[in-house]
């Protein structure tokens, strides 16, 4: 082999969160995957059905535009919960991996799939890395994240903090409307795309199905909206709300960018237009516009927190591509067999809601 | 006062970095500001002139499109350096604050400036917060960041890792060309905007001066490019390279979004176009295209790391705006006196190069 | 109930280690207990038999002076190991809990056992805490620690770093000899007490059996010796070697004190006696005496690291004691039913070797 | 030079605390030394006189049994305090170094002083380390610790949490009495030793003066007592109260051991004697005895927290010793010139009170 995959000596801390802390464990084809959540207070009731509901929303095989892997995603809470209530100790959620095809993944060591982790993961961890089904890099790891997020969102919900996401763009079909959490919730699960407007849903579905027929994939944008988050939370500098949210969001495979409020469009605006004047409304301070996306100086101001997330087209496509044979150093054609999501946006919607829940609860606990 | 600014009890950890760790201290009008850098190895030579050079590039008052505050920004390294070499102990850099106008800032407590920290900072820290000159929220805090970044970049430079940024958009004037580090460096300091192309520089300068005359401000986009960063660094999930970089970038005041590689444009692309085929070039693996911006699965692949950063128009404008008087609950007109940067993009260019240097060195040390 | 057990809101980070990080999960009567180890490099071979060997040394029911709980302690590595080698990802070890008696523990809420966690654990976590079998406070949690420590010690062993511990005191029977790692290893498992000298073993065993017959318990001291740890590791101040070791050791239930080298006896010594003169031996720097226990200024000097650990007598005794009924506020007699270790020193020996292994490997990786 | 002092690549995180976090900076002969405290809430009044009072208690040159270095130890709070109140931002305290003798310390590189950091510090950080006056390893660094501790103790005091320490043993003169905080405070500053009983003070002073005349030094024990610390704070395992306290205490130069409550004496006790029966007293739960030193299962139980700390005799003695010349590899006689504390116990008393204050406030904030 011309390319040598060596080990790196130190593997740094990969915990997420300051007060509410999470760690993922397992991989695509290990016996189970899971998440450890530390920092949950004791005496909280946990609604397991809400967790399963969110897992079902994320689940593979839920319809014919998602991957065919069959996973019931029945989770277990193996510690930290007693008689339905949190104990205040680390809470561990595990989900078994059942449909782990015995397919040979070792070919991808020699012939790495384009825009896939086959090559960089080996560079990073060396030859011993378990890359069956993309191992720990697999989107499958978002299942425990979704379960943990469902717990966080239950707790936020009790404080009237609500998070909702939807597909606002698929390919070049873009719905520019800003929806409230309530409109998003009413509509997002009524279509395969997880968008809000029925007409846009129709167009987007058609696009995804066309792309799927062509053994190709397509990208999109997810819009996220948070209502009810208290004003005055977050910090300047390295734990600004935007920093904490962006770090979490950018950790989700397939995400390529994030913008808050008016985002990149602010680049062509003037201050006199972009500034959000403070106004008095229903006995509370708010702002006339919300170009800032609910955050100024890293701190929430009480208006809805809004951001948009760019999602790339799935790297795994059936269409013939070209890549490199690392042994022969020659370019080779590659046809990836198997069913893949032609567009991961609908499933990313569920994952983003979850991880944002974890971030916001961490911020809340960190400032209490 | 109708609005009550209370304290929050716990103020969480605001350290940045895992192995190379930084903390900022001081504020706009304290006697000095500074940064503490922990995790630097011993026995490194530090070139103080490079630090001063970068501080001068960021400095206020350097030309007539930056704020008029006069600061020589002469820094001191008060510990961690001995006979020109790092000792391996915490390295502390301090910069005195000299031009701290005794202007009255307390008015902004009652009449908060739109899109400014006057209101959220008090919500967060309560009445005792020192908000003279925006206190710790001030862009002035980027001076020690730039000094620290200059140290990090010296170390990276010894390993042929180079970072360069430039203004690729001001208002709606956009230069779509992708430049190499070397072309950026040759041109970026030859114009007030810190853009690369002379013709674009001319147009952008005119726009900024027009906006300035109108007592308004304008936003823009900064493009960042890193060459020479080794393949195989970064991690999946919470410390993906994108997460670490995004967290750092989103902590800089005025930044509203970040996108890696093709970024938001990937939303309308197909997988067959967006995937970057691996190819063999000059005895090394690389990719034909670089839509991924040099990062796959959170890990560097050895191609240039590229990302774009959205910068909002400066919130402080001379033009009359409307805001709220928190005592009377009535809307009031507001005219902010004093000279402000009509566009912070040229100075943000310098700051982003610095903070990216700190992030990359942290990643390097974390994986060594 | 007169005493109210409320919840505490924030539960802080309980991760141990800076580079090699561990977290425990589960409790005495949950379905499984486990440990997550983060920071292990990839490509290390793991000898599972060594792990099982150490688990067997710690195991309950191994002889008639340990608790009668029957646990095979067969462990599983559910992630982080692939084809016998570490992958560089989080390594998760789980051990099922089998012999979880359905005994009623709720009585101890009203009538807390003296010097037991029944009372403080509820004060800390509130009523929802799972205290069956003392829950997460149980000595049972040392099983995953021992498993993790066995991995750490394999890695240290490859660098000729060896750790050995033994009972140097039981009650007032004290063996003042300092033994080498090799003598400790040759003898420590040949007697129930895990002491070195056969004659002392005999006396100590007799004492433990006498105490056991009287339904009482007895304390002791464990001496720990580390050979081969490289000079020049550790830091001044908050991560001095002594700080890191002491923090780990003091986290083990039943430990009441730690002293390094000459320890408390140094209090009555003069500097001229206590100072360890540097001498040259076999081409290396060493010291004539080792009063410092191998550590100066928080940093290893290459001589054996030695410390002693005080272990209290087991709190669970069959003998009738007095305690409080929290409902009636009256003193009540208490007879604790069931078999308990009359002396936990022999099992603590195994646990201390394990946790010291984890600390030293963390130090090694942190300074690499 | 036969011995080569190389650098170590990674210098790990040396922050102390989870919620209230501190970092030290500077060294014995840098222009200033200081501490950064993060995690202090906003709106707290700080009494600067209390800080100076504690600094004066620790100060060198305060009497003829302390080192002759002349330092006024006038501190400055350079950020985090505004109009006498904390702002909630990082609080930075600096103390100038004035009396930095230009003496040549480089000789100690070749001829390391026994039981001093001359040798291990160079092994750890390499040749570039600034070891003038022992650099960052110097006891001088305890000055900013004492200042920070004085702030922590003011905050604890408002919640009726009081910490007091005293010398309970010097050489083999040992006062076995357990004193309350109030008796300690009444007496501790009335004698040079900082012990409680006048007769013991007299004996101990005589011993120290004798030792001083002989150009030697002597060790001792400091007893620490905390009253008013709320029950129910602390955690099992890695952040047990004992772990947090021990880690802090063991970071202070000269400390060789720590024991809680009955400590090492528990080794020879039976459970039936060592267990602390719960009793009802003045409407509160308490224990008849306090062998546990106020902590069970890592958690406070509301009784006084007590522990003892072993302090070694000062390594710097005037008496002729032997050490090694690293260049010639031969043993050489060494006479250390200059005045040194013949016994550091009286100054350690002040330092321990300070650092315990920082630990307890961190625990308090972490559980709020």
From TrEMBL, chains A, B, C, D:
The keyword DNA damage does not apply. InterPro entries: Chorismate_synth, Chorismate_synth_AroC_sf, Chorismate_synthase_CS. FMN binds at residues 136-138, 297, 312-316, 339. NADP(+) binds at residue 58. GO terms for molecular function: chorismate synthase activity. Gene3D superfamilies: Chorismate synthase AroC. Its EC number is 4.2.3.5. This reaction introduces a second double bond into the aromatic ring system. Belongs to the chorismate synthase family. This is Chorismate synthase. It comes from Candidatus Lokiarchaeum ossiferum.
């Amino acid at each position: 082999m011309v390319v040598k995959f060596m080990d790196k000596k130190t593997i740094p801390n990969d915990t997420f969160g300051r007060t509410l802390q999470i760690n993922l464990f397992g991989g695509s084809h290990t016996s189970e995957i899971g998440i450890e959540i530390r920092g949950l207070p004791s005496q909280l009731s946990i609604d397991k059905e809400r967790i399963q509901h969110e897992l079902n929303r994320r689940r593979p095989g839920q319809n014919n535009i998602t991957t065919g892997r069959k996973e019931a995603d029945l989770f277990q809470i193996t510690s930290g919960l007693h008689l339905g209530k949190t104990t205040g100790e680390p809470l561990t959620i595990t989900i078994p991996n059942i449909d782990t095809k015995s397919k040979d993944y070792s070919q991808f060591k020699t012939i790495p799939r384009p825009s896939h982790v086959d090559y960089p993961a080996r560079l990073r961890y060396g030859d011993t890395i378990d890359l069956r089904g993309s191992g720990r890099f697999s989107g499958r790891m978002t299942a425990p994240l979704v379960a943990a997020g469902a717990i966080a969102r239950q707790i936020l919900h009790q404080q009237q903090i609500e998070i909702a996401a939807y597909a606002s763009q698929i390919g070049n079909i873009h719905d520019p409307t800003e929806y409230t959490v309530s409109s998003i919730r009413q509509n997002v699960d009524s279509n395969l795309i997880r968008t809000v407007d029925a007409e846009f849903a129709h167009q987007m579905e058609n696009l995804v199905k066309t792309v799927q027929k062509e053994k190709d994939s397509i990208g999109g944008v997810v819009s996220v909206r948070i209502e009810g988050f208290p004003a005055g939370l977050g910090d300047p500098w390295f734990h600004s709300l935007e920093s904490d949210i962006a770090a979490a969001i950018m950790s989700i495979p397939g995400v390529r960018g994030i913008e808050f409020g008016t985002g990149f469009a602010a680049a062509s605006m003037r201050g006199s237009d972009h500034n959000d004047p403070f106004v008095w409304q229903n006995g509370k301070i708010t702002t006339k516009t919300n170009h800032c996306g609910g955050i100024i100086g890293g701190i929430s101001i009480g208006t809805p927190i809004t951001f948009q997330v760019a999602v790339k087209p799935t790297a795994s496509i059936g269409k013939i591509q070209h890549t490199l044979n690392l042994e022969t150093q020659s370019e080779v054609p590659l046809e990836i067999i198997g069913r893949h999501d032609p567009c991961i946006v609908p499933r990313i919607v569920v994952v983003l809601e979850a991880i944002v829940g974890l971030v916001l609860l961490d911020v809340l606990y960190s400032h209490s």
